[in-house]
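User: I'm putting together a teaching handout on how sequence relates to shape, and I'd like one worked example. Could you take Pentapeptide repeat-containing protein from Actinomadura violacea, show the sequence you're using, and then write out its predicted structure as tokens right after it?

Assistant: Happy to. First the sequence, then the structure tokens directly below it.
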Amino acid sequence: MVDQEETPEYLPVKDAHKALGLWSIRRALTLAFSSAVLLLVASWFGLLWLLGSPSHAKPKPLDTTAQLELLKLVFALVAGIGALVALVTAYRRQRVDEAAGERAERVQAHAEKVARDAAHDATERRVTDLYGQAVEQLGHDKAAVRLGGLYSLERLAQDHPDHRQTVIDVVCAYLRMPFTIPAPSTAEQQAAGPGADVARQELQVRLTAQRVLKRHLTRPSDQDRRAAHWPDIQIDLTGALLIDFDFIEGHATQATFANAQFSGDAWFGGAQFSGDTWFSGAQFSGYAGFGDAKFSRDAGFEGAQFSGDAGFGGAEFSGYSGFDSAQFSGDAWFGDAQFSGDAQFGGTHFGGAHFGGDARFGGAKFSGDARFGGAKFSGDAMFSNAHFEHEPSFVDAAAGYPNDDQQWPAPWYAQPISADRAKLVRRG
């Protein structure tokens, strides 16, 4: 059963004074007049008592002057009574106007609230409809429709900031969907059928999704485009396949790239991550650029595989940074990097990092513990002018090429590790 909406009950005009806490005008005037008369009589007898009541004597007829004075007194009494009535009436009118104004303000505020709620509900319904249509388009079998769905989501998030995180979550979820990069187009493959063409179209959709992330998670220097930046966004690209991923100068809070596959180069130069960032198990097939990137909290690269060169020059790690079991097949640059927290390049849990090429830490600053236990350096390991606030650990670290049996040589150091200068030279 639906409850009927209650409507306010209004008092009739003759009883409206009760709603304002006032007496009726008749009662107010009667009380005011009676009080005035009593006050006048009391004042008269009080004055006579102070001046001394004259003895009873034969009254004398009033002369013209006395009559005029008596007439002035009567007029003054009448004027006083009139002023009293006017004062009572003005007071009541003021009270009525104030009450009416307060009630009008309450009615207007209520009407505005109802209008805002109605507009908000209508907007939410419209946003929900648009969101549902865009998500449905992302599941369409035609690439052009999927592209339209991405652009619809982007426009929706741009116009409605409260839904930006949701839209980013949808875009990231799309990129986490399984996908195989198509082989380069050839005349034979084009003649083989439409399957390869469908994969290439899907590639364009995924590249567009990556550009959406780039466009709105990058803080541009151009003031005219600053409105395109979406602040305080989290991204989850766990296990995603990313192609030539560009996140230069990107800004994100918590970011997860665990087990992601980066096909081609991956650019994170100057990126800022205000929360925890995870690249554990990520695979980089090309160059991985993290130069001048800023990790405000923990950064995990445990088990990451860098098939190409990896650049971390000038990167800032404010929290824990973990590179246990990371595989660097190419050169690894950490020159002038700053490690404010503990830096883990080797340990008992995951094993040490493996540097297949040169490992350069020249000028790096380690404010916390620096652990390279079990790390393997196949190329030159340069720590020139590196600064260690605590004595670093190179226990069981090995430098040199593996022998024919793929067994690493015994722990070996070219010279002792010092706090201001350290160098491991490749053994011939």
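A couple of points you could highlight for students: The radius of gyration is 44 Å. Residues 64-138 form the longest helix (75 residues).
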